[in-house]
Design brief:
With about 375 residues, the protein is an alpha/beta fold. It folds into two domains: about 220 residues, Response regulator (Rossmann fold, 3-Layer(aba) Sandwich), CATH 3.40.50; about 100 residues, Rossmann fold. It is built from 13 helices and 14 strands. The strands form three sheets. It has a seven-stranded mixed sheet, with helices on both faces. Helix 2 packs parallel to helix 12, helix 3 packs parallel to helix 4 and helix 6 packs across helix 7. The longest helix has 20 residues. It is globular, with a radius of gyration of 21 Å.
Length: about 375
């Protein structure tokens, strides 16, 4: 751990030097923050259910060090301005640890509030690189890869596997989409064998994206790299295919979601996207998914495995630290491997998981199929 990061740990830990003594009957409160309604609920609800499954098992076994775990579930709709209010609310309700937020923009907005209150935050899906690269949030951890890694995988795949020579990079102007697109743009420009023919931002929530689709067509791009979420991606792909454009469409884990396929329908066929590695061969991953089917009667959604991992490492840290003291928990999170659907891992000095990997997927016959494993 660097001195700077250690100093930051002390800074946010000092706010809880004099906690109120807890009775044995008091619960450990874990906040869950994310999109639980709206267009991006398919990203947030799997995190709620993954955490519920882990906590249900823990409480059935007597809790953590004799204390039951209570979940405080709050919906930020993936909007930064709501996320700040949610962070303040969770803290006021007694949450000293939080699983979430889901979207990078919402996470980035809420993190300073959690940091100043000494609250540990673990996200299963916020991939914006700045969240860990700059050391601004020593209380933040994630069980998913960062966007610089994701963008590198996307560009390398587009160039080497799809053999694209002219690439258009499109994004949704948000912290997540634009952040990933900027990395992709840099990596494309560094590669002297390909040409960046278009770099363009679109407005989220628009009904018609024909203007940018026409720009892509005029650019002569062999492939489009898109940074953003599935609502916009589904519209862009649909309009491209309706114009008979065969341009390859390669995107990120914000598009690697079954909702994208449901909305785009037949036009989703052949779309590529990155996503967390397939854990179906992992026994813990299989059992977690089966528990979800039995409990909720459906297949788990996006980031379920990452959220399940987050719940496991967080509850382990609570148990080993003997409570919610931020500095004690940080010591566990940074040093102790915990078995998860992705294998055993801990967190590096920046808060990134040491064992999470990603794959490329392709939509085939209405479902995402892994086509390139690590």
């Amino acid at each position: 751990m660097t001195f700077c990061r250690f100093a930051l740990y002390l800074a946010f830990a000092l706010v809880i030097v004099f906690p109120t003594p807890l009775r044995a009957a008091d619960t450990i409160k874990i906040g869950i923050a994310g999109a639980h309604s709206g267009d991006l609920a398919s990203y947030g609800l799997p995190t709620v259910r993954a955490t519920e499954l882990v906590v249900k098992g823990i409480n059935a076994r007597g809790g953590i060090n004799g204390r039951q775990v209570e979940l405080l579930i709050e919906d930020d709709v993936c909007k930064p301005e709501i996320a700040t209010n949610i962070a303040t609310k969770l803290i006021s309700m007694g949450a000293r640890v939080v699983i979430g937020h889901i979207c990078s923009g919402a996470t980035k907005a809420a993190l300073p509030i959690y940091r100043d209150a000494g609250v540990i935050v673990i996200s299963p899906s916020a991939t914006n690189a700045d969240l860990t690269l700059n050391g601004d949030y020593p209380n933040f951890y994630r069980t998913i890869f960062a966007d610089n890694i994701q963008a590198r995988t996307i560009v390398d795949f587009t160039v080497r596997e799809l053999r694209a020579k002219k690439i258009a990079v499109i994004h949704d102007k948000g912290d997540y989409g634009k952040g990933l697109a900027e990395f992709a743009k840099t990596f494309v420009e560094e590669n002297k064998t390909v040409e960046l023919v278009l770099y363009e931002g679109v407005t989220p929530g628009a009904v018609d994206y024909s203007a940018v689709v026409q720009k892509i067509k005029r650019s002569g791009a062999d492939a489009v790299i898109y940074g953003g979420y599935h609502p916009e991606a589904s519209k862009i792909v649909t309009q491209m295919r309706k114009k008979k454009m065969g341009t390859a469409f390669v995107s990120d884990d914000g598009v690697k979601d079954d909702t994208f396929i449901k909305v785009a329908g037949a036009f989703a066929e052949g779309v590529y996207a990155t996503g967390p590695v397939d854990v179906s061969a992992n026994s813990l991953g299989r059992s977690a998914r089966e528990a979800h089917r039995q409990e909720y009667g459906t297949e788990p959604g996006a980031f379920f495995d990452n959220a399940y991992a987050a719940a496991l490492v967080l509850t382990n840290a609570l148990a080993k630290a003997g409570g919610t003291d931020a500095e004690a928990m940080a010591g566990v999170l940074h040093t102790e491997d915990v078995e998860t659907p992705f294998g055993a891992f801990h967190f590096d000095r920046n808060g990134d998981a040491t064992g999470t990997t990603l794959s490329m997927f392709r939509v085939e016959n209405g479902r995402y199929v892994p086509i390139k494993q690590p």
